[in-house]
Amino acid sequence: MLQCLTAAEREQVVFFDDLTPNQPSHILDRYPLLRSVAEAQDYLARTDHRFVLGLGGPALRQRLAVQFQGWGGVLTTTMAATAVVGPHVAGVGVGANIMHYVLVAPSARLGEGVLLNAGAAVHHDVEVGAYCEVSPGARLLGRCRLGSSCQVGAMAVVLPDVVIGVNAIIGAGAVVTRNVPAGTTVVGVPARPLQTSRK
Ligand SMILES: CC(C)(COP(=O)(O)OP(=O)(O)OC[C@H]1O[C@@H](n2cnc3c(N)ncnc32)[C@H](O)[C@@H]1OP(=O)(O)O)[C@@H](O)C(=O)NCCC(=O)NCCS
Fold first, then answer.
1. Whether residue 99 has its Cβ less than 6 Å from ligand 1
2. Which residues 6+ apart lie within 8 Å of 114 measured at CB?
């Protein structure tokens, strides 16, 4: 995430992590770390109200967005300098994180809090639901649609017009040729559901 910010933006960065025990007071010996809810609330109240989600899966990202907005924080979008997001994109939801070398093609629409990791490609007329996580190098091809909070593994390909239900998980390297029901995990080429007994 740091790599996706400008030098001026990096000067203002403060991290938040209340999950990892025994963290130092600074990340990389430089960036202050807020280690508790109380510290984060205090920081938002007295200084800059903006926050970005950084990395993490859909559930964590959504929880943090709701929590920080509840404390008066302003959910903010980040876009790396090398990302190509053209003027004809249908929409980019607030709080999206668009990492280096991402392509978002014309008429594509990104929901609130979407994470597009490095090198992901979202082609024309694709819809990516709120809080979806699209991993490095994944390809979402023309007009496919992802419901909210889906996870697409690294280098996976979703073929044109395919519809992915909410909370579905696409395994790394999968090629998705058919619609995927909500909450289903699929893997392989062509992608097939992971059997419950194997989970
Ligand atoms: C699909 C996925 C979510 C399954 O995770 P899981 O439920 O913990 O599954 P397991 O690791 O227990 O594997 C279950 C079975 O599926 C197979 N499997 C897991 N992931 C697979 C994949 N991507 N493609 C093909 N088979 C896969 C395993 O080999 C295993 O098979 P087996 O029972 O015959 O040994 C996960 O493996 C995956 O691909 N995640 C994406 C990771 C990613 O891209 N992260 C990006 C971070 S930036």
1. no
2. 93, 96, 97, 128, 129, 130, 131, 132, 133, 134
Per-residue pLDDT reduced to its tens digit, 135-154: 999 999 999 999 999 999 99
CB of 198 within 6 A of ligand 1: the answer is: yes
Nearest protein CA to atom 10 of ligand 1, as residue: 199
Quick one: pLDDT band at residue 199, thresholds 50, 70, 90? very low
Q: How far is the CA of 97 from the centre of ligand 1 (A)?
A: 24
Which of the four pLDDT bands, split at 50, 70 and 90, describes residue 109? Answer: very high
DSSP H or E segment with residue 51: strand 50-51
Can you give the pLDDT at residue 196?
Answer: 63
Please check whether residue 170 is in contact with residue 156, taking contact to mean a CB–CB distance below 8 angstroms. Answer: yes
pLDDT of 2: 84
Which whole-number Å values give the CA distances from 148 to 12, 58, 113, 197, in the listed order?
Answer: 31, 9, 10, 26
Residue 197 has pLDDT above 60, yes or no: no
Best probe residue, ligand 1, of 61, 164, 187, 195 (max atoms within 8 Å of C-beta): 187
Q: List pLDDT tens digits, range 47-56.
A: 768 889 987 8
Q: Residue of the nearest CA to atom 15 in ligand 1? A: 198
- Two tokens, residue 19: 């999950």
